[in-house]
Specification:
By secondary structure, this protein is mostly helical. It contains ten helices and no strands. It is flat. The model is unreliable at about 1-5 (pLDDT under 50).
Amino acid sequence: AEYMGGYFHLFFRKKKKMLFVTIEDLLNYILKWVIPVGTTLYMIPTLQAARYHLYEPLQFNLSYKTLIQNFSFSRTNLKEGRFWTGITFLICHADYDHMMANIRFISVEGFNVFNEFGFLGTFSTFCLGGVFTAFDPFNNHILQTQNSIKSLIPSPQLNDIFNNTQQQEPFKKIFDWIGSWRDKGVKVVANELETRKHYVGASGGGFALLGMNTMITIKNLISLGEMLHLKTTKTTKT
């Protein structure tokens, strides 16, 4: 999502050049982005709150089942036709700390993006980052699960048992066979676990904002460097 946000920077039209921040920019950002988005994330109860009926003040009284079915992304929800969860999972979180961390994350990373591209560009980046994370075109979710399982069940190594190649040779095929079946088993278990997982949280959208924010910061630093260079050149000529 972070790389995607960086690439999106190339496609959005500039709203204005911004090298220096004003109080007006900051207030505009708080009123039009931080408060609306932060309030939306806060008002959707966390999974922990819904499960134990520990709702925060002003939160919607949504059941745990409703959140799982409509505000979490999973293979089960996709199979049952709930495609909207590819975006709605962004506004639901596991617990209160998870929610507050993401509100802070989005508030910090969205500032440059908002001032450069306005609400629409910021919101589009946030949502598309979430969709990109949820549908996972590079299968990062399942690869992470496989690596976690492999770390718990390491593949047998001949070097750990035998010191030289001659001793290893008679057992090499056996160990290769065990290793191949272990890898097949890991894939089966990882696939099964993925069908049971439910993803929630605004991190994907936040990382997309981070990627675009990074590109804007680099561009602004280059522009500032060019400005200082021109100023220095004029001063020298004078």
